[in-house]
From TrEMBL:
This protein's encoding gene: queG
Protein name, UniProt field: Epoxyqueuosine reductase
NCBIfam families: tRNA epoxyqueuosine(34) reductase QueG
Gene Ontology molecular function terms on file: 4 iron, 4 sulfur cluster binding; cobalamin binding; epoxyqueuosine reductase activity; metal ion binding
Keywords (A to Z) from UniProt: 4Fe-4S, Cobalamin, Cobalt, Cytoplasm, Iron, Iron-sulfur, Metal-binding, Oxidoreductase, Queuosine biosynthesis, tRNA processing
Record carries keyword Disulfide bond: no
CC cofactor: [4Fe-4S] cluster; cob(II)alamin
GO annotation, biological process: tRNA queuosine(34) biosynthetic process
Cofactor annotation remark: Binds 2 [4Fe-4S] clusters per monomer.
Residues the record lists as binding cob(II)alamin: 87, 163, 187, 198, 245, 270-271
Originating species: Teichococcus rhizosphaerae
Length: 382
Protein backbone atom coordinates (compact mmCIF):
# COMPACT_ATOMS: atom_id res chain seq x y z
CA UNK A 1 0.00 0.00 0.00
CA UNK A 2 1.45 3.36 -1.00
CA UNK A 3 1.70 6.48 1.11
CA UNK A 4 -0.57 9.42 0.56
CA UNK A 5 0.96 11.83 -1.91
CA UNK A 6 1.31 15.49 -1.08
CA UNK A 7 2.73 18.65 -2.53
CA UNK A 8 3.14 19.72 -6.13
CA UNK A 9 6.52 20.45 -7.73
CA UNK A 10 6.61 23.56 -9.94
CA UNK A 11 7.45 21.54 -13.05
CA UNK A 12 4.36 19.35 -12.60
CA UNK A 13 2.13 22.36 -11.95
CA UNK A 14 3.40 24.10 -15.07
CA UNK A 15 2.88 20.97 -17.14
CA UNK A 16 -0.64 20.20 -16.09
CA UNK A 17 -2.10 23.54 -15.08
CA UNK A 18 -0.25 26.08 -17.15
CA UNK A 19 2.50 28.61 -16.54
CA UNK A 20 2.18 32.37 -16.47
CA UNK A 21 -1.23 32.57 -14.79
CA UNK A 22 -1.52 34.82 -11.77
CA UNK A 23 -4.14 32.58 -10.16
CA UNK A 24 -5.16 29.05 -10.86
CA UNK A 25 -8.80 28.51 -11.77
CA UNK A 26 -10.91 27.00 -9.03
CA UNK A 27 -10.79 23.23 -8.82
CA UNK A 28 -13.76 21.47 -10.31
CA UNK A 29 -16.40 20.48 -7.78
CA UNK A 30 -18.50 18.05 -9.82
CA UNK A 31 -17.60 14.41 -10.58
CA UNK A 32 -17.60 15.23 -14.29
CA UNK A 33 -15.45 18.31 -13.91
CA UNK A 34 -12.90 16.59 -11.71
CA UNK A 35 -12.61 13.68 -14.13
CA UNK A 36 -12.08 16.06 -17.06
CA UNK A 37 -9.32 17.94 -15.24
CA UNK A 38 -7.57 14.74 -14.22
CA UNK A 39 -7.78 13.35 -17.76
CA UNK A 40 -6.14 16.49 -19.18
CA UNK A 41 -3.41 16.44 -16.55
CA UNK A 42 -2.67 12.75 -17.11
CA UNK A 43 -2.42 13.14 -20.87
CA UNK A 44 -0.11 16.14 -20.41
CA UNK A 45 2.15 13.98 -18.22
CA UNK A 46 2.56 11.41 -20.98
CA UNK A 47 -0.15 8.82 -20.35
CA UNK A 48 -1.84 7.54 -23.49
CA UNK A 49 -5.11 6.28 -22.01
CA UNK A 50 -7.15 7.49 -19.04
CA UNK A 51 -10.43 6.21 -17.64
CA UNK A 52 -12.48 6.27 -14.46
CA UNK A 53 -14.52 3.66 -12.62
CA UNK A 54 -16.15 3.19 -9.22
CA UNK A 55 -13.95 1.43 -6.67
CA UNK A 56 -15.94 -1.76 -7.04
CA UNK A 57 -15.72 -4.93 -9.09
CA UNK A 58 -18.41 -7.53 -9.63
CA UNK A 59 -18.37 -11.03 -8.10
CA UNK A 60 -17.25 -12.55 -11.41
CA UNK A 61 -13.73 -11.20 -10.85
CA UNK A 62 -13.39 -13.08 -7.56
CA UNK A 63 -14.97 -16.19 -9.10
CA UNK A 64 -12.45 -16.26 -11.96
CA UNK A 65 -9.54 -15.74 -9.58
CA UNK A 66 -10.77 -18.49 -7.27
CA UNK A 67 -11.13 -20.94 -10.17
CA UNK A 68 -7.63 -20.07 -11.43
CA UNK A 69 -6.08 -20.65 -8.03
CA UNK A 70 -8.09 -23.81 -7.33
CA UNK A 71 -6.66 -25.33 -10.52
CA UNK A 72 -3.12 -24.43 -9.43
CA UNK A 73 -2.55 -22.50 -12.65
CA UNK A 74 -0.53 -19.84 -10.83
CA UNK A 75 2.42 -22.23 -10.52
CA UNK A 76 5.15 -20.76 -8.31
CA UNK A 77 3.48 -17.36 -8.15
CA UNK A 78 2.29 -17.91 -4.61
CA UNK A 79 1.67 -14.20 -4.09
CA UNK A 80 -1.42 -14.49 -6.30
CA UNK A 81 -3.07 -16.63 -3.62
CA UNK A 82 -2.31 -14.07 -0.93
CA UNK A 83 -4.71 -11.23 -0.13
CA UNK A 84 -7.31 -12.56 -2.56
CA UNK A 85 -10.09 -10.38 -1.13
CA UNK A 86 -8.01 -7.23 -1.61
CA UNK A 87 -7.11 -8.26 -5.14
CA UNK A 88 -10.71 -8.91 -6.14
CA UNK A 89 -12.23 -5.84 -4.50
CA UNK A 90 -10.61 -2.37 -4.47
CA UNK A 91 -12.32 -1.46 -1.21
CA UNK A 92 -11.02 -4.67 0.31
CA UNK A 93 -7.55 -3.20 -0.15
CA UNK A 94 -8.53 0.34 0.87
CA UNK A 95 -12.05 0.79 2.29
CA UNK A 96 -11.94 4.58 1.83
CA UNK A 97 -11.54 4.34 -1.96
CA UNK A 98 -14.44 5.87 -3.88
CA UNK A 99 -13.09 5.95 -7.44
CA UNK A 100 -10.34 4.31 -9.48
CA UNK A 101 -8.35 6.12 -12.14
CA UNK A 102 -6.98 3.60 -14.66
CA UNK A 103 -4.08 4.82 -16.77
CA UNK A 104 -2.28 3.29 -19.71
CA UNK A 105 1.07 3.98 -21.34
CA UNK A 106 1.69 2.72 -24.86
CA UNK A 107 4.75 0.56 -25.49
CA UNK A 108 3.96 -0.55 -29.02
CA UNK A 109 6.90 -1.86 -31.11
CA UNK A 110 7.96 -0.30 -34.41
CA UNK A 111 8.45 -3.68 -36.08
CA UNK A 112 6.96 -7.15 -35.93
CA UNK A 113 8.41 -8.68 -32.75
CA UNK A 114 7.92 -12.19 -34.14
CA UNK A 115 10.40 -11.65 -36.99
CA UNK A 116 13.31 -12.23 -34.60
CA UNK A 117 12.16 -15.79 -33.94
CA UNK A 118 13.73 -16.84 -37.26
CA UNK A 119 17.19 -15.66 -36.21
CA UNK A 120 18.21 -18.62 -34.08
CA UNK A 121 21.63 -17.27 -33.12
CA UNK A 122 19.92 -14.31 -31.45
CA UNK A 123 17.81 -14.08 -28.33
CA UNK A 124 14.23 -12.83 -28.42
CA UNK A 125 13.43 -10.53 -25.50
CA UNK A 126 9.82 -9.48 -24.98
CA UNK A 127 9.04 -6.01 -26.29
CA UNK A 128 8.26 -4.65 -22.83
CA UNK A 129 11.71 -5.53 -21.46
CA UNK A 130 14.01 -4.08 -24.13
CA UNK A 131 14.74 -0.87 -22.24
CA UNK A 132 13.95 0.64 -18.84
CA UNK A 133 11.78 -1.05 -16.24
CA UNK A 134 8.28 0.18 -16.96
CA UNK A 135 7.38 0.07 -13.27
CA UNK A 136 9.77 2.97 -12.65
CA UNK A 137 8.56 4.98 -15.63
CA UNK A 138 4.85 4.56 -14.94
CA UNK A 139 5.21 5.06 -11.18
CA UNK A 140 7.06 8.34 -11.67
CA UNK A 141 4.20 9.69 -13.79
CA UNK A 142 1.59 8.38 -11.37
CA UNK A 143 3.27 10.11 -8.46
CA UNK A 144 3.46 13.39 -10.38
CA UNK A 145 -0.26 13.17 -11.14
CA UNK A 146 -0.98 12.22 -7.52
CA UNK A 147 0.91 15.23 -6.14
CA UNK A 148 -1.02 17.53 -8.43
CA UNK A 149 -4.37 15.96 -7.46
CA UNK A 150 -3.80 16.27 -3.70
CA UNK A 151 -2.77 19.89 -4.10
CA UNK A 152 -5.75 20.56 -6.36
CA UNK A 153 -8.34 18.92 -4.12
CA UNK A 154 -7.06 19.51 -0.60
CA UNK A 155 -8.25 16.98 1.92
CA UNK A 156 -8.56 14.21 -0.67
CA UNK A 157 -6.51 11.06 -0.29
CA UNK A 158 -5.15 8.57 -2.79
CA UNK A 159 -2.86 5.61 -3.38
CA UNK A 160 -0.92 4.71 -6.54
CA UNK A 161 -0.22 1.21 -7.85
CA UNK A 162 1.87 -0.30 -10.63
CA UNK A 163 1.61 -4.09 -10.83
CA UNK A 164 3.20 -4.80 -7.44
CA UNK A 165 0.11 -4.61 -5.18
CA UNK A 166 -2.97 -6.87 -4.99
CA UNK A 167 -4.90 -4.94 -7.62
CA UNK A 168 -7.05 -6.43 -10.40
CA UNK A 169 -5.52 -4.18 -13.02
CA UNK A 170 -7.10 -5.59 -16.15
CA UNK A 171 -10.69 -5.83 -14.85
CA UNK A 172 -10.37 -2.28 -13.51
CA UNK A 173 -8.99 -1.05 -16.83
CA UNK A 174 -11.94 -2.63 -18.62
CA UNK A 175 -14.39 -1.11 -16.11
CA UNK A 176 -12.78 2.29 -16.79
CA UNK A 177 -13.11 1.91 -20.56
CA UNK A 178 -9.44 1.51 -21.49
CA UNK A 179 -10.06 -1.78 -23.28
CA UNK A 180 -11.24 -5.30 -22.64
CA UNK A 181 -9.64 -8.54 -21.53
CA UNK A 182 -9.03 -10.48 -24.71
CA UNK A 183 -9.07 -14.22 -25.10
CA UNK A 184 -5.35 -14.18 -24.27
CA UNK A 185 -6.39 -12.69 -20.87
CA UNK A 186 -4.48 -9.45 -21.50
CA UNK A 187 -6.01 -6.03 -22.11
CA UNK A 188 -6.84 -5.10 -25.70
CA UNK A 189 -7.44 -1.50 -26.72
CA UNK A 190 -9.11 -0.24 -29.87
CA UNK A 191 -6.46 2.51 -30.06
CA UNK A 192 -3.35 0.70 -28.80
CA UNK A 193 -3.94 -2.96 -29.52
CA UNK A 194 -2.31 -5.25 -26.94
CA UNK A 195 0.49 -2.82 -26.05
CA UNK A 196 -0.50 -0.92 -22.90
CA UNK A 197 1.22 -0.75 -19.54
CA UNK A 198 -1.28 -0.15 -16.74
CA UNK A 199 -1.25 1.83 -13.53
CA UNK A 200 -3.98 2.82 -11.09
CA UNK A 201 -4.83 5.54 -8.63
CA UNK A 202 -7.36 4.78 -5.89
CA UNK A 203 -8.88 8.03 -4.62
CA UNK A 204 -11.45 9.33 -2.17
CA UNK A 205 -12.70 11.72 -4.86
CA UNK A 206 -16.03 11.03 -6.52
CA UNK A 207 -15.24 10.91 -10.26
CA UNK A 208 -17.65 10.41 -13.12
CA UNK A 209 -17.18 6.90 -14.57
CA UNK A 210 -16.08 6.56 -18.18
CA UNK A 211 -18.21 3.48 -18.79
CA UNK A 212 -16.93 -0.05 -19.21
CA UNK A 213 -15.59 -1.32 -22.54
CA UNK A 214 -17.26 -4.34 -24.12
CA UNK A 215 -15.54 -7.38 -25.61
CA UNK A 216 -14.64 -6.95 -29.29
CA UNK A 217 -12.84 -10.26 -29.85
CA UNK A 218 -15.75 -11.83 -31.70
CA UNK A 219 -14.94 -15.21 -33.22
CA UNK A 220 -11.20 -14.52 -33.49
CA UNK A 221 -8.93 -17.09 -31.85
CA UNK A 222 -5.55 -16.06 -33.30
CA UNK A 223 -3.99 -15.50 -29.89
CA UNK A 224 -5.04 -18.94 -28.68
CA UNK A 225 -3.64 -20.81 -31.66
CA UNK A 226 -0.42 -18.74 -31.69
CA UNK A 227 0.78 -19.96 -28.30
CA UNK A 228 3.85 -22.20 -28.82
CA UNK A 229 3.25 -24.18 -25.63
CA UNK A 230 -0.56 -24.46 -25.71
CA UNK A 231 -0.90 -22.48 -22.50
CA UNK A 232 -4.56 -21.61 -23.08
CA UNK A 233 -7.04 -24.13 -21.78
CA UNK A 234 -9.76 -22.18 -23.56
CA UNK A 235 -10.74 -18.59 -24.39
CA UNK A 236 -9.87 -16.25 -21.51
CA UNK A 237 -8.21 -19.09 -19.56
CA UNK A 238 -4.43 -19.19 -19.22
CA UNK A 239 -2.47 -21.90 -17.45
CA UNK A 240 0.58 -19.90 -16.38
CA UNK A 241 2.58 -23.08 -15.80
CA UNK A 242 2.71 -23.61 -19.57
CA UNK A 243 3.30 -19.97 -20.53
CA UNK A 244 6.74 -19.01 -21.84
CA UNK A 245 6.63 -15.70 -19.98
CA UNK A 246 6.10 -17.59 -16.74
CA UNK A 247 8.72 -20.22 -17.56
CA UNK A 248 11.44 -17.69 -18.42
CA UNK A 249 10.67 -15.19 -15.65
CA UNK A 250 8.80 -16.66 -12.68
CA UNK A 251 9.90 -20.31 -12.77
CA UNK A 252 13.05 -20.85 -10.71
CA UNK A 253 14.20 -24.36 -11.48
CA UNK A 254 15.06 -26.21 -14.70
CA UNK A 255 12.56 -25.60 -17.48
CA UNK A 256 10.33 -28.67 -17.95
CA UNK A 257 11.59 -30.70 -20.90
CA UNK A 258 8.18 -30.78 -22.59
CA UNK A 259 8.37 -27.04 -23.27
CA UNK A 260 12.03 -26.52 -24.18
CA UNK A 261 11.90 -27.10 -27.92
CA UNK A 262 8.72 -25.05 -28.35
CA UNK A 263 10.35 -22.07 -26.64
CA UNK A 264 12.72 -21.57 -29.56
CA UNK A 265 14.96 -18.56 -28.98
CA UNK A 266 12.66 -16.75 -26.54
CA UNK A 267 14.91 -15.90 -23.61
CA UNK A 268 12.77 -13.46 -21.61
CA UNK A 269 9.01 -13.38 -21.98
CA UNK A 270 6.95 -14.05 -25.08
CA UNK A 271 4.93 -11.77 -27.35
CA UNK A 272 3.26 -14.30 -29.64
CA UNK A 273 -0.31 -14.04 -28.37
CA UNK A 274 -0.07 -10.24 -28.18
CA UNK A 275 1.58 -9.73 -31.54
CA UNK A 276 -0.99 -11.64 -33.61
CA UNK A 277 -3.98 -9.67 -32.32
CA UNK A 278 -5.80 -7.98 -35.25
CA UNK A 279 -6.45 -4.88 -33.15
CA UNK A 280 -2.73 -4.09 -33.34
CA UNK A 281 -3.37 -2.60 -36.77
CA UNK A 282 -4.56 0.51 -34.93
CA UNK A 283 -1.56 0.60 -32.60
CA UNK A 284 1.43 2.89 -32.98
CA UNK A 285 5.01 2.82 -31.75
CA UNK A 286 5.88 3.96 -28.23
CA UNK A 287 6.78 7.63 -27.86
CA UNK A 288 8.28 7.41 -24.37
CA UNK A 289 12.10 7.25 -24.81
CA UNK A 290 12.52 4.85 -21.89
CA UNK A 291 10.20 2.37 -23.58
CA UNK A 292 11.90 2.43 -26.97
CA UNK A 293 14.13 -0.60 -27.55
CA UNK A 294 17.82 -0.43 -26.78
CA UNK A 295 19.86 -1.46 -29.80
CA UNK A 296 21.86 -4.01 -27.82
CA UNK A 297 18.68 -5.71 -26.58
CA UNK A 298 16.79 -5.76 -29.87
CA UNK A 299 18.59 -8.82 -31.28
CA UNK A 300 21.37 -9.81 -28.85
CA UNK A 301 23.73 -12.65 -29.76
CA UNK A 302 23.20 -15.78 -27.71
CA UNK A 303 26.93 -16.47 -27.49
CA UNK A 304 27.59 -13.13 -25.81
CA UNK A 305 24.70 -13.49 -23.38
CA UNK A 306 25.74 -17.00 -22.35
CA UNK A 307 29.18 -15.75 -21.30
CA UNK A 308 27.80 -13.21 -18.81
CA UNK A 309 28.99 -13.57 -15.24
CA UNK A 310 27.01 -11.99 -12.41
CA UNK A 311 28.77 -8.63 -12.65
CA UNK A 312 28.39 -8.50 -16.42
CA UNK A 313 24.71 -9.43 -16.14
CA UNK A 314 24.05 -6.69 -13.61
CA UNK A 315 25.87 -4.11 -15.71
CA UNK A 316 24.06 -5.02 -18.93
CA UNK A 317 20.61 -5.04 -17.34
CA UNK A 318 20.95 -2.16 -14.90
CA UNK A 319 17.56 -0.43 -14.77
CA UNK A 320 15.96 -3.23 -16.77
CA UNK A 321 13.14 -5.52 -15.59
CA UNK A 322 15.35 -8.44 -16.63
CA UNK A 323 17.71 -7.74 -13.75
CA UNK A 324 15.27 -9.09 -11.18
CA UNK A 325 15.49 -12.73 -12.37
CA UNK A 326 19.25 -12.83 -11.81
CA UNK A 327 22.11 -14.14 -13.92
CA UNK A 328 21.47 -17.86 -13.37
CA UNK A 329 17.86 -17.96 -14.55
CA UNK A 330 18.68 -15.71 -17.47
CA UNK A 331 21.63 -17.80 -18.65
CA UNK A 332 19.43 -20.89 -18.21
CA UNK A 333 17.02 -19.32 -20.71
CA UNK A 334 19.86 -18.46 -23.08
CA UNK A 335 21.16 -22.02 -22.99
CA UNK A 336 17.70 -23.32 -23.82
CA UNK A 337 17.72 -21.09 -26.90
CA UNK A 338 21.22 -22.29 -27.81
CA UNK A 339 20.01 -25.86 -27.63
CA UNK A 340 17.25 -24.97 -30.08
CA UNK A 341 19.49 -22.98 -32.40
CA UNK A 342 20.93 -25.78 -34.50
CA UNK A 343 24.03 -23.59 -34.85
CA UNK A 344 27.23 -25.73 -34.53
CA UNK A 345 29.21 -22.63 -33.61
CA UNK A 346 27.32 -22.45 -30.31
CA UNK A 347 28.14 -25.98 -29.18
CA UNK A 348 31.37 -24.96 -27.46
CA UNK A 349 29.55 -22.08 -25.73
CA UNK A 350 27.08 -24.51 -24.17
CA UNK A 351 29.72 -27.11 -23.34
CA UNK A 352 31.81 -24.55 -21.47
CA UNK A 353 28.96 -24.03 -18.97
CA UNK A 354 28.48 -27.68 -18.05
CA UNK A 355 30.55 -27.10 -14.92
CA UNK A 356 28.90 -23.80 -13.97
CA UNK A 357 28.53 -23.36 -10.18
CA UNK A 358 24.79 -22.86 -10.63
CA UNK A 359 22.99 -26.21 -10.88
CA UNK A 360 20.23 -24.72 -13.04
CA UNK A 361 22.80 -23.34 -15.49
CA UNK A 362 24.86 -26.54 -15.54
CA UNK A 363 21.76 -28.65 -16.23
CA UNK A 364 20.66 -26.35 -19.06
CA UNK A 365 24.17 -26.41 -20.55
CA UNK A 366 24.26 -30.20 -20.47
CA UNK A 367 20.88 -30.40 -22.19
CA UNK A 368 21.83 -27.82 -24.82
CA UNK A 369 25.17 -29.44 -25.64
CA UNK A 370 23.62 -32.89 -25.85
CA UNK A 371 20.78 -31.66 -28.05
CA UNK A 372 23.13 -29.90 -30.45
CA UNK A 373 25.46 -32.89 -30.56
CA UNK A 374 22.55 -35.17 -31.45
CA UNK A 375 21.36 -32.75 -34.13
CA UNK A 376 24.88 -32.65 -35.63
CA UNK A 377 25.07 -36.45 -35.74
CA UNK A 378 21.69 -36.69 -37.43
CA UNK A 379 22.77 -34.19 -40.07
CA UNK A 380 26.02 -36.10 -40.62
CA UNK A 381 24.18 -39.36 -41.22
CA UNK A 382 22.00 -37.94 -43.99
Amino acid sequence: MRRRASGCPPRTCRTTVGAGKKALPSAATTPEGRAAEIRDAALALGFDAVGFAPAHLGPEVRARLDAFLAAGMQGEMGWLAERVEQRAHPQGLWPEAVSVIALGMNYGPEDDPLALLERRDRGAISVYARNRDYHDIVKKRLKALARWMVERWKGSELKVFVDTAPVAEKPLAQAAGLGWQGKHSNLVSREHGSWLFLGEIYTTLDLAPSGAEVDHCGRCTRCLSACPTDAFTGPYRLDARRCISYLTIEHHGPIPHEFRAAMGNRIYGCDDCLAVCPWNKFAHAAREPGLMPREDLSAPRLAELARLDDAGFRALFSGSPIKRIGRDRFVRNVLNAIGNSGDPALLDVAAALRADPSPVVAEAAEWAARRMDEAARQQGSR
